[in-house]
Design goal:
alpha/beta, seven-stranded mixed β-sheet, globular
Length: 224
Amino acid sequence: MYDTAPARALVERHDSVRYPYECEFGGALLRIAKGVFCPTLTKTSPVLLDSIDFRPGERVLDVFSGSGAFGVVAALRGSDVVTIDLSPAAVQCTADNAARNGVLDRLDVRWGDMTAGTRGNSLTEDDVFDLVIANPPLLPGRADGLFGRALYDIDLGATSAFLRTLPSHLAPTGRSYLLTSDVLERIGLCVEEICAANGLAAQLVRVRDVGYEKYRVHRIIRVP
């Protein structure tokens, strides 16, 4: 269904660097802690970054936030940001990177997911955003190991759950950018179909074909 070798190589790249690992991403100076994915060591994060139209003065949600890279970039560009991740190491890394870039006062760093009342400091019904950025796990499988939760997700249910929950937190004129792999379709899911069933419309805005997978970014809006 998909080649596991690239995922193993990605983990090996992370294992080969010295931590804390420092990098620059979208104008943000990041310090990556061990056990947290680095956006410059992956093929996917730059694809998503190049797709997003950041606008100052907006309220932004960064879901599956990892190191907080996208949230910090949004804050540097003048937005107020909420970041959410289920990894305590990622949450701490996000807070550290916000402080490092002088935007801690613009970031509300939370542990949890988008489903209110389930795990962690999740969103409430009052949390509505102009821009929602989502970089979920791309491969179906058990989330084992140090990087497992960022790589693997049983049946890619986190992506489906994100799209079902998104209408409750997206402003009427807001937009969301979702990164997926075509592995999603290989297991029988479709971004456009899930969106249509939840009052959303999805437009494919970027594709990067790396041979073993196609990485895609969809721009998602609410249907009027």
